[in-house]
């Protein structure tokens, strides 16, 4: 009960200190909010891109081109062989005559095609993988290249792999940015509390003379730091949410041009809770370090 | 209650504030510490709540050598002592009531009980009507009385005062000294460093001369 009362008093005092210098508090909150908004916004953007990549990587396909002299029976056998593989969702047979007809129909190619002595296109089988893991597709392609009557195997999963690599890189970048700006937040709180402690030096000194423990002196500063962090986190959330809502329409329009659907939305409950929790914790940490150093120096 | 046992205090490089002080002070006793400026009166008082540590000898409070107390134990020693400083050490951003409440908040008193005690302490020193006044709005004598109220609000068995009447006019000094005498009458041990011990009739007199008991 005593412990609760002590924390209640400290929290009340911290609120009082926050509101006693509103401009300073506002600037500190804004500083923290902007510092946190960058990694939080990066994380939000990345979450959306990763979700998009997850859907987009389902489309990479593997094309098996047969030799020009391969018979239709061989082509069917290879198609059956592909269909039997668990990593293949479905196949599509592209007959060489159909390819030729399509090319002839293509604008600008008709004359070139007509000039050819014979059909230069082979039969081909397009395999749509069930697994969008680029490594699995790569392995299947390597295997298919060894099959008889197979001239060439082409995969278009490279772009997916690059996208995955980019997302991984971006994740590391966001983590790095978050770490750096997290340290920035701790520094902001550290200095704010240091100034607070210096301006409240008389109060600290008198409290110690009257029998205050270090914990009694530290408590309001800890709450102050945690509150500052929390308010900074709320500011960051508002900045990110506003940016997401503002950019939602143009981003959706851009995505649509590439045949993609991307609905940018403010951070969800889990991300919001993580943001606010981390901000509070970092604010508290900055305050704890600052007041610890201040009291140790006395 | 308090024993100075061959206590000495030096400040660097080689300033002797106190030398070879041995004296016992009993519970409920009224003691004045007198001497010229720089005689060591304030230092002697500061050794009791371990604001200063002796460089030799011991200071025992209730049998405990306060010179050997660690940082964590100090607050609990000081909570049993009422301190009145020469410069009062009031918090000027808090009103009189909040100043008096501070020792009770530190000791963890429930809010209502703390309010009741603080009001009683202010009443005792005649400042209840000024409870919501900031210290800056109080006269020198009122500020000193406020400092006394803060020192006694948690009902300590020992009250230390360093020149509590130093900057007061004769009438106000007399009033303030009267408050200390009242606390002594109800059993509180009072040790006052003062330039004028005639304000504290009946007190045992400790005279310091260049850091030594004369």
Characterise this structure.
The complex is a heterodimer of chains A (298) and B (214). With 298 residues, chain A is of the alpha+beta class. In chain A, 73% of the residues lie in helices and 8% in strands. Chain A contains 10 helices and 4 strands. Chain A has helices at residues 2-20, 22-56, 72-84, 96-105, 110-115, 134-144, 158-199, 201-209, 214-257, 269-296, and strands at residues 62-66, 88-94, 124-129, 150-155. Chain A has a 4-stranded antiparallel β-sheet with strand order 2-3-1-4. In chain A, helix 2 (22-56) packs across helix 9, helix 7 (158-199) runs antiparallel to helix 9 and helix 7 runs parallel beside helix 10. The longest helix of chain A is centred in the last third of the chain and has 44 residues, at 214-257. In chain B, helix 6 links the parallel strand 7 and strand 8 (189-193). Chain B has helices at residues 41-47, 74-78, 96-107, 111-124, 140-152, 170-185; strands at residues 2-11, 15-25, 30-35, 56-61, 64-65, 81-84, 158-162, 189-193, 204-209, 212-213. In chain B, 31% of the residues lie in helices and 27% in strands. Chain B contains 6 helices and 10 strands. In chain B, strands 6-7-8-3-9-10 form a 6-stranded mixed β-sheet, sandwiched between helices. Chain B is an alpha/beta fold and 214 residues long. In chain B, helix 4 packs across helix 5 (140-152). Chain B has one domain (29-53, 76-202): Rossmann fold (3-Layer(aba) Sandwich), CATH 3.40.50.300. The model of chain B has no long low-confidence stretch (mean pLDDT 92). The A-B interface holds A 2, 5-6, 9, 202-203, 205-214, 216 and B 49, 51, 71-72, 74-79, 83, 85, 89-91, 93, 102-103, 105-108, 110-111, 150.
